[in-house]
Amino acid sequence: MPSLRRPRAIRPGARIAIAAPAGPVDPDTLAAGRTALDRLGFESVARDDILDHDGYLAGSDERRASELMEFVRDPDVDAIVCARGGYGCHRIVDALDAGAFREAAKPLVGYSDITTLLLWQRKCAGLLGIHGPMLEKKEALEGESGAALARALKGTGPPPRYQGETLAGGWGEGRLVGGSLSVCVASLGTPWEIDTRDAILMLEEVTELPYRIDRMLQQLRAAGKFERVVAVALGGFTECDDERYPEATVERLFEEVFGSLSVPVVCGLPFGHIDENRPWPFGGRGALDGSRGELEMLESAVTTR
Predict the structure, then answer these.
(1) Could you say which of 44, 136, 182, 273 is catalytic?
(2) Which domains does the chain have, with CATH numbers?
(3) What's the pTM?
(4) Which end of the chain is more exposed for a tag (fewer CB within 10 A), N or C?
């Protein structure tokens, strides 16, 4: 894996390109997101074909890959924010140029299916990213989520601290890696396979039943991905209840799976498929205080140098 570097911070008025590397984009939601980016003090740009769709994809693999590479190589684009997740990033990573990503050193923002791009970028290009809000909901960039993203992109403000709920006490410090649980599991056996050594494992998920979450966690365990984690930080697990088995909650599952690891574990942190989806530096350093239920960022996702 190349040595890690941080992308360059952007300034007020910077040009942010909106890419659609995964699922199809709703035009009204896109318009609302662009307005929100403008209100945050940036200029948003998008290709004319961003609204293309081919079933569950935002157009062909060629369109989506070329869009992303165009924005990476365009000197007038300062950062890239993905429009939405869904599915599709696995299909295009082979067409991406890791060297160009590293040389351009532009902030890349997204979550959900974009976890694939963040994992690939860290592993193959040696570049940190930003796990954070996109334009998948009209209100996604409103309020503190949008303001926090703006600070993350500019590298300003105090280091963020996020509050959750304690599942296991203790202190752990390491690089923040993870994202969508299902996408992290899907990375196993690929060139961008998740690397959890000496890391704080960050996980979130949406619309997966507890038994499916259990299966995915057991696969990560069997793959050795829990052996060297220093902490586990859990965000939103949204609409993940099973009415047939109300006693089989995800909270109970987390205690069963992570309780024997002897590392701090905090759940309910503000990231993922929730209204308050706060950004964090993918690959950056952080600290998890299990006793206080607090996650602190120790490193900005960008460099101002």
Answers:
(1) 273
(2) 15-154 (3.40.50.10740), 161-297 (3.50.30.60)
(3) 0.97
(4) C
